Task: structure prediction
Amino acid sequence: MPGSAEFVQRVVHTLETGSLAAWLRRGLVAVTIIAIAGFHLWSSHFRGLATSQAMDQAQIGRAIASGHGWRTNVIRPRAVAQLQAHGKDLQKISLDTYHAPLPPLVDAIALWPVKSHWKMTPADVIYVGDKAIAAMSILLFLASVAVLFFIARRLFDRRLALLGCGLVLLCDAIWQYSLSGLPQMLLLLLFNLTVYALVRAVEARNSGGFVGLWLGAVGAGFGLLALTHALTIWMFVPALIFCAFFFRPRGWAAVIALTVFFIIYAPWLVRNYVVCRNPGGVAIYSVLDGMRHTEAGWMRHSDINLEGVGPGALRDKVTANLLTQMEHIFGYLGWSVVALMFFAALLHAFKRSETGAVRWMILAMWGGAVVGMAVYGINEEQGFAANQLHLIFIPIMTCYGLAFLLVQWNRLGIRFRFARIGFITLLFLLCAVPMLFDMLLSPNRPLVRWPPYVPPYIAVLNEWMKPDEIVASDMPWAIAWYADRRSLWVPETVKTMTDFNDYKILGGPVNGLYLTPICGSQNTLGDILKGEYRDWSGVILRTLNLEKFPLKWATLLGLENECIFLSDHDRQHIPTE
Result:
């Protein structure tokens, strides 16, 4: 038929001219991205939030979304002692001073659409709140890739920008962190926006344009980064020094960036000071991690004994952490060969001065992050670490590493187009290996992150405990998130908890105690008897005489009954009101 033939000719012509082919390629890329995101979020690979930090921030985000502000259901004995030492009202213990404000705020935005499903029931395996937060993280990741495209296009060209974004989208480590609930994806987006502002500032400086606006944007970016994770301040310091020497007149660039940074970040410090008389809040004690106690150990202490904590202990800790980072640098950079080649790219003389200058800025910021991570440590839970900042450097390092590798390929003088395509395909396959292995060859995993989390067995405490009652636990963040109940982090000693209970320091007695493999079966017998939970060994090993303990009713929970819940009365068989 003439009409059909004419239509086919138009389609063929469109394909030949490339317009339809371009849209087909874009559609294929979009479908691939959606498929990867759907696989990670809806398959058995997603087993809920992974870390204490993620759950803690999530429950604060839920409080924000419900209109209660930055309030927390997690009670740290160290925070209680901090308030008592400064004569503050202990009612302020409900105001969180540990976390930065932006991650809970973003969690609140993610949780708002599922408000009607906030209450988790024992029938739920994966909490809908976990999925909402993971979905928001994926959106932040994809937004950061879009910003990366504009950065790479300015530093290199459009083709390399597209290839670099493709390699980043195949980085399994970034996808896994997007499912963890940690704020790394928010950090990644803000970091890329900050780098974009820096690139524009360098371009304006080289062209003789006005750089003040872009330097202000750089300061704003670092302010938002600090409000997401205070450890990023260690990145800001070398960036500030770089700006002071690179831009003219010297010093003024640093003043502009620092002023805007201070305007954005200072109000949060003032807020913390008003709450607890310390601008760093209770998080200030995180620097003691690895010196005598872990960070968790320090947070469980009411009394601070700094004996043995000094310059020598700090030096040993920093040295050990630096060595650990260097040993695992390939893994921290997502097992990406291309990202690792960033360091080789430092030896290459790029034609564009902006490209050459920005790489040194990236190196300086990465060096600051390395030092910060060495001071505070990278403590992993379920394979994830809240202090892991190498991750946010993977995308920009990938673009530089790819540029270097393509330059070296061109120097080989191989003119066959298919050989070049084969080389690029090989790079994509190398970067995709961890993801392919995770999708196709990884062993079967449990539906939840056990040990130590079984959300349905935690959610049951919502029915057993009243909203004004308090339950002590070695995983207070999980009880606050899945059960939506106030939870005291188990203090260092039984006596301290008895004091909390008898004197009603927290506004009422401690009505329950929930212990899990965190202090029990995940540890050796020596750890239980001599470790940070040694004073609780009788409860952990089930040898305690409950007749002499305030909480006399006990029930076993969790898979294989590895969790124990103690209470002041039988709650399991009493109808809830």
